Description:
22% of the residues lie in helices and 25% in strands.
Amino acid sequence: MTPFDEDELKQRAGRLSLEQKVRLLTGADFWSLYPEPAVGLRRLVVSDGPAGVRGEQWDERDPSANVPSPTALAATWDVERVAAIGRLLAYEARCKEVDVLLAPTVNLHRTPYGGRHFECFSEDPLLTAAIGVAYVRGLQAAGVGACVKHFVGNDSETQRMTVDVRIDDRVLHELYLAPFEAIVRTAGVWSVMAAYNGVNGYSMTESPLLRDILHDEWGFDGVVMSDWTAARSTEGDARAALDLAMPGPAEKFGPWGDALVEAVRSGAVDEALIDDKVLRILRLATRVGALDAATSLAEPDSPDVPTELREAAAASFVLVRNEPPAGESEPLLPLPPRTTLGPVAVIGPNAALARTMGGGSATVFPPYTFSPVDGLRVNGVDVKYAAGLYGHGRVPAAGAPHLFQPDGVTPGVEVRFFSPEGEPVGSEKRRTGSWTWMNGFGPEVSPGTVGRLEVHCVIKASIGGSYRIGVSGLGRNRLLVRDIEVFDLELSLPEGADVVENLMTPPQHIVPLELAKGEAVPVVFEYDVTSSPLAGFLTSLQLNLEQPHGTDDEEIAKAAALSASCGYAIVVVGTTSETESEGIDRQTLALPGRQDDLVRAVVAANPRTIVVVNTGAPVLLPWADQVPAVLLTWFGGQEYGNALADVLLGAAEPGGRLPTTWPASEEGLPSVRPSDGVLRYDEGLFVGYRGYDRDGRTPLYPFGHGVGYTTWTYQEMSPAPDRAVSVTVRNTGSRRGREVIQVYASKPDSAIERPVKWLTGFAAVDADPGETVTVRVPIAERAFQHWVPGQGWATEPGTFTLAAGPSSATLPVGITIAAPEG
Length: 822
């Protein structure tokens, strides 16, 4: 790109009037900043991530590569692989003319109840930092800016717009700020997003932490932007180190605009602060190539998207249990060769429908997805499928093979738009039964232009029986079937609901519909746009349909019978994008519906049962010790089913290790429920495995755990130059495999409160059967330091123990070293 020095940028900013400068500090719309020809600034576009690049249009007509969820990326413990995903996302961003990706999310897995747990990396600050740095470096090396979020303390969703999070200063620095610090100082991130919540009495857009920590302590020279609608005060936000209020325009969403101009003219806000904010925006524009028409950026290399996503998903899968079935001597996985495998029963509500991402701003529309059933079939397995359960969530959006446009032949629907006066103003042909419009209804239909819309389609019955049909949408909804009104009613969200609940789980109304096999009926869904409080700026609607099925008991019995007739059974259980989503925290860690009963019935019918857990976050697995093989697969992205087939059939190693502790029960987990608007982090330093160690509790699966398809022996550990240790391991199994060597520090005689142990470094090795490998593991600079409020980082004199192993619970080799001086 063309370089611009600071003096040049300051000169350009000096050409602008106060009004022009203030205009640059609020978005032009939901996804872009204003252009400013006077300084050579073109329109600069941001887009949601981190599981893909959404772009400005958010529907199936503009698909995006769907990468594995951040929990999956962290489960790889592979910084090079994550950097490659960053480069892939940069390529996607440039294809969509996106300059800044609103990712990664590096809030911690403080508790598995957090609704965006799937969107964050880990419970551990060091692992989160390492994965986050790799993600940002991969993205920004290709000229696309990262916006690390949400600074800071947005570790849960309940009352997220207003909650005041109370965090001890030492805990804040050692845990919650640590990933942000690494990404600012090591990766040089170009922008940071200030969270909705407050911390220790200040809303984050007004927080002194922005200037005291980001600017003064860490030397951050990029842009601080608000989360969407998080900026709420004119003078307080302006005096803080907030540079950009999103979204725009200011007269609709932001607290700045004319009010900020007046605050500067009155002396309430120093214009020098405005100048600094403008300079930071111009600096960001320089970095992403948005300054001067002549500025050009080299396009990122075109990646092999399917291969990269397939390999990344497989590398993230964590095999937590792999025992011989009853009466056999060999572990159940991998499965035998396809030539001898025979029919395999594939069971479960998540088996035929790929659950590849969580809900909220991380949602994208992939060009395709491979479900577990799809992946196994295309990879040569004779699959016998049974759902086992239906209806463990909301009635889903209508789709294939039932949904057709009014001609009854073309899949999808026709959406017709009408003005408030009833005049036609446009139409769309859509392929799905779920639709979201932001900031109007497309580039040709702005907010306020549409007063009503109609969805016209034909529903065809694949089988006869009692279907369930309905709609989802905030406001007035009318449904007609066979030209007869079925209902006309107003739907509303619960009091205090987050705006994202309207986006991901709009209120729903369902009624029965009897259809004969092959019958086709015309359906019209009418929606009054003006009846929504969001009035066209954010419209999320669904036409919902569920086909006939038996009771839970009947479906479970069918699944068990099918499993008994096959040599192997694979049960895919999990959550949905409605269970795990931005805007809501989880009420329970139990699997939705009667999935636990389904697992028990299948394993009773077939002892060769593998359970595949398709979630972005921990769930309770009360049957885990009854099943020979358990594979945790996260939300695996669009290649999920193919990656699953690779791992189950042994073509790929299940290379993942747990980035978060998997609880055996809900005992002792930190709460997400504020009291009187305050959420206290009373657990302090003892998050995740640190809390289990302190309390003497045993989780179901410890942090770092994963068994792979071979076995390893840890032989020795020794100090190495340049703040590192050497660890020697031997592959004692019969297959080539991958081991993630983890090093933890401890100080049992410490005079200050500390965790029993804490992660200080990790490295992965690959080895053939019988091969011995020695690997150097760098030890984090902060491994021996603690934060002293009012003073900064300090090192306690004395000795520390470093121990290495395959998880936080198994550390067979170790050394004792003296604390470094200084």
